[in-house]
């Protein structure tokens, strides 16, 4: 059996702690199920800057490109607030997305029944919520050129970011959304702002065109992104799959994540182009939450989003549907047992540390897999 190569980039803040818990699960899977994962570790974000003055080193970039999948923790923190823009922690993440060509970012927002009361919305609005946001990740205003600040003199400056999309970029992300909808409730909502943006006009046109030709079996709705944000907090369960551009996807996925009351629990997958020869694709898996420097190093972080990201990795990169399902069942089971890290704690539950949560997940996983 060929080794399965994972590259682990824990990053900054709570990244180290949650990656350590994912590591326990990987070790357990190797020991109990002989899955043959081989892990290498690298540095990204502030940790990489401290070590080499860049947000990710060339060597680590090469390893990320060579791995079957990358697991990513989180980057950033106040310590690096003043480092030069090009080497700020986030630049490492953006470089990975761009150079691995991870154009499709899947962000599920699932409300675990045990946590419905933790949402800022009424439980009856979010109970059973299961939305998938498909965010375009390598284009749009994040990467468009020009991107600059020009000095106009007399204390006046001019800042430009450029929103740019081409047909092919929209087509491929729309196709991902439609394909995924086929395995769900067959409903895609595309969000843009064609009322003010040319890129929105093209987005809508291209999504409609590919739908008409290839995906008539999936229902398609268009929504202006501002109205979409409003509908997400008004009646979130109307959505199944939402497909949108890089910047709107950034905003809308934070809103959707918070609706579930479980920001510390949500995973994501960033997927590249499928290689026509091998059928494989580059991929990176990361929790939706950030590096939370305020609680770093205290054993307070919730490792579930990281471990749920590992489950997505098993399913998508390695086709291990059973093992992924077992891991997800282990997550539900520890919640049903009342275990809670501080972020999701409520009265009457059992408060546990990052490490205790990871250990409990290992124990459950072993039981379920046996
Ligand atoms: C995210 C984050 C990143 C983004 C930051 C850290 C660059 O907010 O993954 O949603 O804006 O894409
Ligand atoms: Mg974001």
TrEMBL record:
Binding residues annotated for substrate, in chain numbering: 97, 107, 135, 226
Domain Isopropylmalate dehydrogenase-like, residue spans: 5-361
GO function terms (MF aspect): 3-isopropylmalate dehydrogenase activity; magnesium ion binding; NAD binding
UniProt keyword NAD, yes or no: yes
Residues bound to Mg(2+): 226, 250, 254
Top-level division of the source organism's lineage: Bacteria
Subcellular localization(s) per the UniProt record: Cytoplasm
Cofactor details (free text): Binds 1 Mg(2+) or Mn(2+) ion per subunit.
Predominant localisation class: cytoplasm
InterPro entries to which the protein is assigned, alphabetical: IsoCit/isopropylmalate_DH_CS (IPR019818), IsoPropMal-DH-like_dom (IPR024084), Isopropylmalate_DH (IPR004429)
Gene Ontology annotations of biological process type: L-leucine biosynthetic process
Enzyme Commission identifier(s): 1.1.1.85
GO cellular component terms, A-Z: cytosol
Assembly notes: Homodimer.
Name by which UniProt lists this protein: 3-isopropylmalate dehydrogenase
Species annotation: Candidatus Tokpelaia hoelldobleri
Lineage: Bacteria, Pseudomonadati, Pseudomonadota, Alphaproteobacteria, Hyphomicrobiales
């Amino acid at each position: 059996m060929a080794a399965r190569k994972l590259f682990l980039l824990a990053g900054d803040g709570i990244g180290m702690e949650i990656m350590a818990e994912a590591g326990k699960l990987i070790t357990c899977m190797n020991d109990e199920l002989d899955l043959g994962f081989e892990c290498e570790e690298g540095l990204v974000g502030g940790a990489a800057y401290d070590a080499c003055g860049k947000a990710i080193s060339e060597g680590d970039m090469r390893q990320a490109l060579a791995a079957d999948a990358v697991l990513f923790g989180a980057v950033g923190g106040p310590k690096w607030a003043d480092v030069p823009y090009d080497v700020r922690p986030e630049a490492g993440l953006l470089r990975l997305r761009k150079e691995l060509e991870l154009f499709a970012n899947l962000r599920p927002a699932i409300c675990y029944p045990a946590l419905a009361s933790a949402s800022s919305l009424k439980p009856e609005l979010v109970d059973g919520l299961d939305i998938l946001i498909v965010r375009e990740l390598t284009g749009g205003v994040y990467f468009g050129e020009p991107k600059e600040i020009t000095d106009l003199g007399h204390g006046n400056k001019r800042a430009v970011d450029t929103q740019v999309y081409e047909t092919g970029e929209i087509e491929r992300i729309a196709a991902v959304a439609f394909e995924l909808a086929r395995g769900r409730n067959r409903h895609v909502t595309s969000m843009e702002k064609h009322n003010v943006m040319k890129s929105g006009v093209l987005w809508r046109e291209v999504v409609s065109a590919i739908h008409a030709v290839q995906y008539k079996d999936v229902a398609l709705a268009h929504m202006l992104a501002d109205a979409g944000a409003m509908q997400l907090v008004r009646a979130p369960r109307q959505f199944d799959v939402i497909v949108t551009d890089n910047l709107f996807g950034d905003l809308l996925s934070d809103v959707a994540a918070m609706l579930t009351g479980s920001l510390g629990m949500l995973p994501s997958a960033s997927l590249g182009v499928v290689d026509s020869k091998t059928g494989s694709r580059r991929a990176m898996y990361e929790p939706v939450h950030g590096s939370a420097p305020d609680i770093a190093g205290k054993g307070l972080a919730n490792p579930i989003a990281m471990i749920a990201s590992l489950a997505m990795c098993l399913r998508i990169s390695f086709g291990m549907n059973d093992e992924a399902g077992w891991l997800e069942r282990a997550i539900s089971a520890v919640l049903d047992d009342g275990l809670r890290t501080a972020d999701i704690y409520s009265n009457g539950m059992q408060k546990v540390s990052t490490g205790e949560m990871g250990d409990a997940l290992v124990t459950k996983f072993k039981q379920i897999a046996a």
